[in-house]
Amino acid sequence: MERPSLEINLSDTHQEGKLYVVDSLNNLNKLTVCPDGSQHVLDEEENTSGTGENTSGSNISNEGLFFITFVLTLIISLALVSFVIFLIIQTRNELDQVSRRLMSEKKNIEGIKKMHKMILKHLSQSRNK
């Protein structure tokens, strides 16, 4: 009984050996028949999935698309941050100008109050005379 099982195993390995030899011959035929430029086409055909898309090419294009999107996002965020900083500086300058105007107006108002008191004092003295 052990002999038939050995024969089956030997025939299986013999079949696998034949498939390996045929595959090796096909690869050798591709290398000798196809020039270097067309070998890449054959490699790409082997790398395609069942839908007919090249998976290595789509990975590269996905990585490239991700990189471009990442760089654009960084540039846009840098531009927005720069704009916000510009607005903060402009607002600070405007607030400084307004505070300077208020200080000068306050001095003017205090001067007018002093003049008003002096006029009232002068009028009250002139009425008394």
UniProtKB/TrEMBL annotation:
Keyword field contains Membrane: yes
A Pfam match: DUF4577
UniProt KW keywords: Membrane, Transmembrane, Transmembrane helix
Source superkingdom: Eukaryota
InterPro entries from the UniProt entry: DUF4577 (IPR028099)
Sequence intervals crossing the membrane: 65-89
PANTHER family registered for this protein in UniProt: LEUCINE-RICH SINGLE-PASS MEMBRANE PROTEIN 1
Protein name: LSME1 protein
Native source species: Upupa epops
